[in-house]
Design brief:
CATH superfamily of the largest domain: CRISPR-associated endonuclease Cas1, C-terminal domain
Number of domains: 2
GO molecular function, one term: hydrolase activity
CATH topology of the largest domain: Four Helix Bundle (Hemerythrin (Met), subunit A)
Protein name: CRISPR-associated endonuclease Cas1
InterPro entries: Cas1, Cas1_I-E, CRISPR-assoc_Cas1, CRISPR-assoc_Cas1_C, CRISPR-assoc_Cas1_ECOLI, CRISPR-assoc_Cas1_N
Organism: Micromonospora sagamiensis
GO biological process, one term: defense response to virus
Helix content: 40-55%
Largest sheet: 4 strands, mixed
Oligomer: single chain
Length: 322
């Protein structure tokens, strides 16, 4: 019996994570689907967005989304983020675009081994301090250097824009309680978290298994997002605050989108995650070994403690030694 409707796309037909739009923000509209496109309908008309090109769909105040639209996002490996006046409230994502579990297995192995976890954490800090040797620094020393770097970054952009800066002060339950620059920082970081979250799940890693951050469902999201804040969200936030915007949330999202689209962040994010998680185990270029993740077969194998993995889908009862 033929199932009615448009069939889900095959993995090979979907755009890679790094080739997608960073995010699209919608508010005060009804979101549905038309074939393989997401539709947004308001009093101005209907907007069609090909689902396979989306990295993140950010749903703002006044949006209503149908079950069919959410199914289409999930089938196409896109992430949905609910956004309110208090920032990001919920994440939902579809299937991974990777064909194997190799990346998440490498992530779990590294985060579960003290020395390997420390190596990845040091590598993350090394990306912030490319001219310094971080190999022998403790986590306490690395946190101290990172804290000093962020404070210096705030001061530099405050001087550049003429903003009076005191400190990072915000209430996650009350967006408007902060001053303009803190509101803009919260809005900018929320966009970055959504983008990074979408990339992580799309390439088959876990948002929860962090190396610096821990104990939260998005620990790895915060790890990766911290690599780009000084370059993307912090300068954007100070620019918006200096512009005396009357709609800080909307203007900040647009500014982050423009900065991200111009800097190829999605591709960079994918490469950084691969390098952090796979580099110790790779014998050749990361991109060459990653090709298997996107083009390999969908074979399910069975783990064996005493030998190589076995092919799944067959009965091994005749091999038992009773």
């Amino acid at each position: 019996m033929k199932i009615p409707g448009v069939p889900p796309a095959e993995l090979a037909e979907l755009n890679r994570a790094q080739d997608r739009l960073s995010f699209v923000y919608l508010e005060r509209c009804v979101i549905h689907r038309d074939s393989n496109a997401i539709t947004a309908t308001d009093d101005k008309g209907v907007l069609h967005i090909p689902a396979a090109t989306l990295g993140v769909l950010m749903l703002g105040p006044g949006t209503s989304v149908t079950q069919q639209a959410m199914m289409l996002l999930a089938d196409n490996g896109a992430t949905a983020v609910w956004v309110g006046e208090q920032g990001v409230r919920y994440y939902a994502h579809g299937r991974s675009l990777a064909r194997s579990s190799r990346l998440i297995v490498a992530q779990a192995a590294a985060v579960s081994h003290r020395d390997r976890r420390l190596d990845v954490a040091r590598a993350m800090y090394r990306m912030r301090f490319p001219d310094e040797d971080t190999h022998n620094l403790t986590m306490q020393q690395l946190r101290g250097k990172e804290g000093a770097r962020v404070r210096r970054c705030y001061r530099e952009h405050a001087r550049r824009t003429g903003i009076v800066w005191t400190n990072r002060d915000y209430n996650p339950d009350d967006f408007t309680s902060g001053d303009p620059v803190n509101q803009a920082l919260s809005a900018a970081h929320a966009c970055l978290y959504g983008i990074v979250h979408a990339v992580i799940v799309a390439i088959g890693a876990s948002p929860a298994l962090g190396f610096v951050h821990t104990g939260h469902e998005r620990s790895f999201v915060y790890d990766i997002a911290d690599l780009y804040k000084a370059e993307i969200t912090i300068p954007v936030a100070f620019d918006i605050a200096a512009s005396e915007s009357t709609d800080i949330g909307t203007d900040t999202r647009r500014a982050v989108r423009d900065r991200v689209n111009g800097g190829a962040l999605l591709d960079r994010c994918v490469r950084d995650i691969r390098n952090l998680l796979l580099r110790p185990a790779c014998s050749g270029p990361i991109d060459d070994e990653w090709a298997d993740e996107e083009t390999g077969d969908d074979t399910v194998r069975l783990w064996d403690a005493d030998g190589p993995e076995l092919v799944g889908g067959r009965n091994y009862g005749s091999e038992l030694d009773f």
